[in-house]
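Final paragraph of the annual report: two paired records, presented back to back.
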Amino acid sequence: MMKPLPGEGDVEVLVERPYSHERSPSSTSSTRHTRPTRPPPQLRARPYYRRWSPWIVSIAAVACIAVFLVTMYVNDCPRRSATGCAAGFLGRFAFQPLKENPLLGPSSATLVKMGALDVSRVVHGRQGWRLITCMWLHAGVVHLLINMLCLIFIGIRLEQEFGFVRIGLVYLISGFGGSLMSALFLQSNISVGASGALFGLIGSMLSELITNWSLYANKVAALLTLIFVIVLNLALGILPRVDNFAHIGGLISGFLLGFVFFIRPQFAWLNQRREPAAGQQTSPVKRKHKTYQYVLWLVAAVLLIVGFTVAIVLLFRGYNANEHCSWCHYLSCVPTKHWKCNSSATTCSTIQQGNTLNVTCDRTGFHKTYPIANATQDRANELCTQLCS
């Protein structure tokens, strides 16, 4: 909540002066026909900062849902899966077996086909566009529902405050930053989801509070609340099947972007601009922003430019961050007695014999024969994922 000025609410009330050439009662009493009285002075209230109508967040949510439906249509589980589908009554939109995808969604092969982040294809296949497309894909209904609810609750409030341009830029750039971080650390798995962009919005809320510190009331309580939310969500990221590196990359990107895009002018400067219209210019000239706001803006902008440049260069040179950081993998998954963190790539040995395909999972040793003739590489990869799950 913004601090009101002393003795005022959160809006400024402007009173229009009556016309100076109106006649006084004494001067009009001797005339036979008096002029009609002027309307009373009007009170006009206007907020200190503009409020925007949110729409870009809603469009982003609709786009993610539409992309998921297209992905499920392309997946076509009844025709492609040899082990049955979950929710088969949905027909072509049925989900992969729960053992393969517990999030109620498509196969890994379909996600890769639709643009999931696959580091080998990004680096060796020069498919850098996957760093952007992966943030519009989701692994399943559960994944999609959680992300879209977070997007609506967080994004709409921010868009009302700062408008669609700045929120759209923070969302896209943070998602890109999350993809970069994920690609540098998780090179054996594919990655999808808008979580990096969502963490970017949360990070921008934290930096917005810091850079506009003097404008807020109850600032300490708001700061502690945001820190608690961030720590809680990052802690959930240590569970298996969650790409916490995308969360961390998006959070850092959004935190720096907040200093750049969410800087607000001071109340004194806003009042100074309005005083001349009311004929009340008495105070000395005020600066639009405080010195620390300019410093934070400059530092954040430099860190963003340098950080993204270095990360992109390292990625396309095939840099694997885990080789230089032996403990970093614990940031994404911590093994316990209840689950394991197996980040090794899923590979299988396949042999095509006439109308049958023999598949053996290299990690588990499981073997299965499928009645498939002339199986494509994508089909073999899909069967490998199912067998090794």
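The closing record of the year follows.
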Amino acid sequence: MDGKGGSFVAVRRITQTAGRGHGYHPPPGSTAWIGKGISCVCAQGIKSEAHLIFDLTSSQEQCLHRLQRRIAIVYDSSKKEHQEALKAIWGAAYPGVELLGLISEQWKDMGWQGKDPSTDFRGGGFISVENMLFFARNYPVSYNYFAN
């Protein structure tokens, strides 16, 4: 670490040979939501050179790699699947209210930064759209409180 109190998460695979690989200290990375079945501890403001290391089973490692591939998918407004997800986010918040377009002043009424919600997903990618849709479908009362 650079001594400025940065954040990092480190993970490693559990090896079958006891004691093997315990001296490995991966470089600091950025904090992230790792996924179901994989522990994530985000270390913030640590001033020492200590690294947190988590042992992963083979199954957890596969899950992590799948998630990393999904995180790399950027939101693309030309993709039908991405457009439909945005429409579903709207429909969950305003059932029965027609969305006039994927770029519309209506999105600002919902709390987005501008009339094009895709700009709010730039940094989070498509997985952030999927997460919001999951929240809307599985926790509709909380979602509607949040969205309205």
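The mean pLDDT is 74. This concludes the annual technical report; the extension proposal builds directly on these records.
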